[in-house]
Every structure is written in structure tokens, then in C-alpha cells.
Amino acid sequence: MRLIGREQLWQLTASGAAVVEVLPRKEYQRAHLPGALSLPLAELYPFSTVDLAKDRDIAVYCYDSQ
After folding, report:
1. Disulfide: which of 7, 17, 49, 60 matches 12 by Cβ 3.0-4.6 Å?
2. What is the pLDDT of residue 66?
3. How do residues 27-45 score in pLDDT, each as one tens digit?
């Protein structure tokens, strides 16, 4: 795991990386990154990631205003 900036995220997605947002569902519905998959942190379990491709990078995003 590593922290990346916006520019690195765009590079990763351009090369096929998946973007997963762990925001609560209401926040995701209000605004989310284009093409991002919603997997709310409160609902994240090992089986909830089974559909994620194992052969590509995955960027996980969570906005915290605090």
C-alpha cells in the first residue's frame, strides 16, 4: 500500500487500474469519481472484494474532511 496524488491516480486509471471508493453509500451517490466502484468501508468484508480483478492495480479512495 502507498499513498498517491491525483496525477498518479490518473496515470494508474489510464493504464487500467480499478478505483474503489470506500465512502458511505449516501456520499458516493452524491458525488464520486467517474467509473469508481462503491465498496463502503462499513460493509467491506473479504468476500466483498471477490469480484475485483486480481491482475490489475486497485486504487482505494476515501475523502475525510476532518
Report:
1. 17
2. 43
3. 899 988 888 989 898 888 7
Whether residue 19 contacts residue 61, with contact meaning beta carbons closer than 8 Å, is answered with yes
Distance, in Å, from the CA atom of 3 to the CA atom of 8, rounded to the nearest integer, reads 10
Phi and psi (nearest 5°) for 6? -60, -45
d(CA 43, CA 22): 9
Q: What does the block give as the cell for 40?
A: 463502503
Q: What is the DSSP string of 11-63?
A: HHHHTT-EEEE-S-HHHHHHS--TTPEE--GGG--GGGGTTS-TTS-EEEE--
C-alpha cell belonging to residue 46: 473479504
